[in-house]
Amino acid sequence: MTQERPGAAGNVDSVFVALADPTRRHLLELLAARGEATATTLAEGLPVSRQAVVKHLSVLDAAGLVTGGRVGREVRYAVRPAALSTTARWMAALAADWDRRLADIKHRAEAAERAAGEGAGGGAVPSPGARDAP
Fold first, then answer.
1. Helix/strand/coil (H, E, C) string of the chain?
2. Taking the complete model, does pTM exceed 0.85, yes or no?
3. Mean pLDDT over all residues of the chain?
4. Whole-number CA gyration radius for the chain
5. The sheet that has 74-79: what strands, in order across it?
């Protein structure tokens, strides 16, 4: 299984929870494209209220995906890529584990096939339906 630092699993879990909602994914995409934006600006292009956008942004913030900084009376939000990078590394390690396991299964199956072929008199396996000539 993959090895993680303590607390990394919780961070990955919170990222997946935050990204499970299509509105939050859309907000993240908008912020990535714009660099930074206020909740009011983000709400203009969405079918939800500004208050709903603020709630979605707070979930993204809790997951470490965005950060909000006060500039005067406004709170401007921007993407924080570190949490996504951590999640991507976790997923890559998990994929590497599965690739290794599948390669091991393939090698074992090939070895078993070779062993069965050698035990059957030279390795040639007749095709189904092939008959011996009289």
1. CCCCCCCHHHHHHHHHHHHCCHHHHHHHHHHHHHCEEEHHHHHHCCCCCHHHHHHHHHHHHHCCCEEEEEECCEEEEEECCHHHHHHHHHHHHHHHHHHHHHHHHHHHHHHHHHHHHHHCCCCCCCCCCCCCCC
2. no
3. 84
4. 27
5. 36-38, 74-79, 66-71
